[in-house]
Write a structure and sequence with these properties.
The chain is mostly helical and 94 residues long. The chain is built from 4 helices and no strands. The longest helix has 22 residues. It is elongated, with a radius of gyration of 28 Å.
């Protein structure tokens, strides 16, 4: 029997033929199948990093001991400007 030929009605009929004492096993197996499907779906696409993930990562504070960075906002702005200048120079945009 292939999955394409199985209907909901067939599943329910098979469940009716099963002694009620085994229904808990059926529910457990359905839960297992759902878990597998969720796990496969999560592995198929990369997980997005949340703000909490970022705060708990090693990235936060990795430059805390650097003395050449005074105001972090000014430093970040300068880095962005330098990157934009390099991008414009490389792409010949005036």
């Amino acid at each position: 029997m292939t999955a394409e030929r199985v209907t909901q009605r067939q599943i329910i009929e098979e469940l009716r033929d099963l002694e009620p004492g085994r229904w808990l096993e059926v529910l457990d197996f359905i839960g297992y199948l759902k878990h597998l499907a969720t796990s496969e779906h999560e592995r198929a696409r990369p997980r997005k990093m949340t703000a909490r993930d970022l705060l708990q990562s090693d990235l936060t504070g990795m430059w805390a001991d650097r003395e050449d960075i005074g105001d972090s906002l000014t430093f970040a702005r300068q880095l962005r400007q330098q990157a934009e200048y390099r991008w414009r120079a490389t792409n010949d945009i005036g």
